[in-house]
Design a protein that fits this description.
This protein is an alpha/beta fold. The protein contains five helices and twelve strands. α2 crosses α5. It is globular and about 45 Å long.
């Protein structure tokens, strides 16, 4: 499996980067959470939130990232209630709301799992500039290649930056507190 962690944050005119343009990451969506409730981008506004795309059958990157996000949320204590954290599947064929609920029971309860039909997932992935691709493997099964970035969005739903989980929980928490 290939999980990509590359993000282009600015466009180019000819060969000159244009760093002053804001990255157009994030946008409208309508999905379903692990409890079967409809969730839109508007529901996440009002507090900063983290977004990660992955799939429940992922053998390493996704569970590791969700564990790290859980450690961060646990470390924030009551302040975690002032944040949002969503895990959006890129494998809607397998990742039903019920499966997402079961899978996320292994992580911090602040994490919300979002799924939807193939078109809805393709749309939200496009809004967040997420690459994903179904890759067949032996035996008729498949895996998914995908972008592996945790997006930090502000309380208005605007992209702030990729959020680095490769730090101590207290350092990450201090970083997030700036956006509360």
């Amino acid at each position: 499996m290939l999980c990509l962690g590359v993000l282009v944050l600015f466009g180019a005119r000819g060969s000159q980067p244009i760093a002053s343009q804001a990255a157009a990451i994030g946008g409208p969506f309508q999905l379903v959470d692990q409890d079967g409730r409809t969730v839109t981008d508007q529901d996440l506004k009002g507090k900063p939130f983290l977004v990660f795309f992955g799939y429940t059958h992922c053998p390493d990157i996704c569970p590791t990232t969700l564990f790290d996000m859980s450690e961060l949320l646990r470390g924030m204590g009551a302040e975690a209630d002032r944040l949002g954290a969503v895990y959006i599947t890129i494998d809607p064929e397998r990742d039903t709301a019920a499966l997402m609920k079961d899978y996320l029971s292994n992580f911090d309860p602040h994490l919300r799992g979002l799924t939807g039909d193939t078109a809805a997932i393709a749309s939200v992935a496009k809004e967040y500039r997420v690459y994903y691709k179904k890759v067949p493997i032996e035996g008729g099964d498949y895996t998914m290649d995908h972008t592996a970035i945790v997006y930090l969005m502000d309380k208005n739903g605007h992209f702030v930056a990729p959020f680095n989980l490769n730090r101590k929980p207290d350092v990450m928490a201090a970083d997030l507190r700036k956006y509360l």
